[in-house]
Specification:
The chain is mainly α and 239 residues long. Helix content is 67%, strand content 0%. The radius of gyration is 22 Å and the shape is globular.
């Protein structure tokens, strides 16, 4: 099988540590836009690759990880968990769309077999960039910068209420109280993530991520060769 007929495998990895540092300095809203901008040179280098084997070498490992952070800082409390959880659901839907596009193009005998699936990435980057241009800054970041007036306006826009509304003022006071509490505690380092109760939380999160990988879904999506599925009558219809 020629290289142009092989099914492309997306790079599902990211750099959350770098994303957290950028989000802490410039907030989550521009961080989402900046990481979406990085998708263009990454996908463009892969599109310009003459062979599929070069696409992995030209792949820049990016993912808009500040998205759930922006969601958690802007969503109302009563629906915050569902909205943040929808981020993982959206990733799964994206994997499904990628599998459908891969299956529709993997029999092509030209470079479109891998360039078309890679080009689809531009659509999601444009959606994120366009959404961040419309959506306001997070109230928590504005309060952190001491801009209470802008924080009230941003929160009022998110809640569709005037900035002087008692609900808006009460939520701003809660955000301000949480920020003041964090300031009284003092600054922390990354080593504090592995001390005391935080170590238990870290191990719990790492265990959940490990169990998620052990389900084998990423292996089925990205790494399972079609030849393994060809003897199966029902699955061979898809591949």
């Amino acid at each position: 099988m020629s290289s142009c007929r092989q099914r492309p495998r997306p790079c599902p990895y990211s750099s959350p540590a770098v994303s957290s540092l950028v989000s802490a300095s410039v907030s989550s809203r521009p961080s989402v836009s900046h990481q979406s901008y990085l998708e263009f040179p990454s996908a463009s280098l892969s599109l310009l690759s003459p062979q599929l084997s070069f696409t992995c070498k030209s792949c820049i490992l990016t993912r808009p990880t500040p998205v759930p952070l922006y969601q958690s800082e802007t969503a109302p409390k009563w629906i915050r968990g569902a909205i943040v959880g929808a981020y993982q659901f959206a990733i799964t839907i994206g994997l499904l769309i990628a599998a459908v596009v891969d299956n529709a193009t993997h029999l092509r005998n030209d470079t479109g077999s891998y360039r078309i699936p890679i080009a689809v990435q531009f659509a999601w980057a444009l959606i994120l960039i366009g959404g961040m241009l419309i959506l306001p800054e997070t109230p928590r970041y504005l309060i952190k910068r001491g801009q209470m007036g802008k924080a009230a306006a941003a929160l009022g826009r998110l809640r569709r209420l005037p900035g002087e509304h008692p609900v808006i003022q009460g939520e701003l006071q809660e955000i301000q109280a949480n920020h003041d509490y964090e300031m009284r505690i003092g600054k922390a380092s990354y080593l504090d993530c592995f001390r005391g109760n935080m170590l238990k939380r870290q191990l719990t999160g790492m265990g959940l991520q490990a169990l998620q990988q052990l389900t084998g879904m990423l292996f089925l999506f990205h790494s399972l060769p079609p030849s393994f599925l060809s003897p199966l009558p029902m699955v061979s219809l898809v591949y």
